[in-house]
Specification:
alpha+beta; 218 residues; 5 helices
């Protein structure tokens, strides 16, 4: 099925832009945390070389460890992963984006999308990755060029559009559309629609939003 936003924003091919060190359209990988800048370390008059070098790490990027304490972004007040009910409305989604310091008004970004052929195993139905154009070089070593145009929707509007499209699709589908994906028996436990949102890199503006099945138990 269509993701549901194809007529609202331009979805980029997975290999765009060409020549990236890490393809931003590779949805099997997640962006590192941090500013992803490499300035020279700040040297104070009283420093020796060993004192100055660690300061440069404040501006770098770090891979995720899986530890929620270690993975908290040191350069951002908000971030992380949120799992959401399938009934979330636009106003609540807007509040969530504000709490997580999302670049909601940005319109210069790329969108990559995917649907799962094995949603029970992958734990998602459809997903989009949003990458601000400003994040292309520092995080992915990509040069999108000067011809990138603003999208018709802001990032905040895109989040709402994706959620609404997925709600409309799955609510219009038969009651058995999600049945059995997570082993529900349709009686004491049955599958429902949910969502997930991740700030992959808050400093540069890389986000992931997906629809997912979850198990509603009595």
């Amino acid at each position: 099925m269509p993701i549901g936003i194809e007529d609202r924003v331009m979805i980029c091919p997975a290999d765009w832009p060409a020549g990236a060190a890490v393809a931003p359209g590779d949805l099997t990988r997640f962006a590192p945390i941090g500013l992803a800048m490499s300035p020279p370390p700040a040297v104070m008059p009283w420093d020796n070389a060993n004192d100055a070098m660690p300061r440069g790490e404040f501006y770098g990027a770090a891979a995720r460890s899986g530890d929620p304490f270690q993975d908290a972004p040191i350069n951002e007040a908000g971030g992380g992963i949120v799992y959401l009910s399938g009934t979330i409305d636009t106003a609540t989604l807007r509040s969530m984006a504000a709490l997580l310091h999302v670049f909601s008004e940005e319109t210069r970004y790329a969108v990559y999308a995917s649907e799962s052929k094995r949603p029970g195993e992958d734990r998602y139905l459809a997903q989009i990755r949003i990458v601000r154009i400003a994040a292309m070089l520092p995080l992915f070593g990509a040069h999108p060029g000067a011809a990138t145009h603003a999208q018709a929707l802001s990032i905040g509007e895109l989040l709402a559009a994706f959620v609404q499209a997925q709600q409309q699709h799955w609510n219009a589908a038969s009651s058995s559309a999600l049945e059995g994906l997570l082993g529900g028996d349709g009686d004491t436990a049955s599958e429902g629609l949910g969502f997930g949102f991740m700030v992959e890199n808050g400093s540069n503006g890389v986000y992931r939003l997906w629809s997912r099945p979850w198990l509603v138990t009595k």
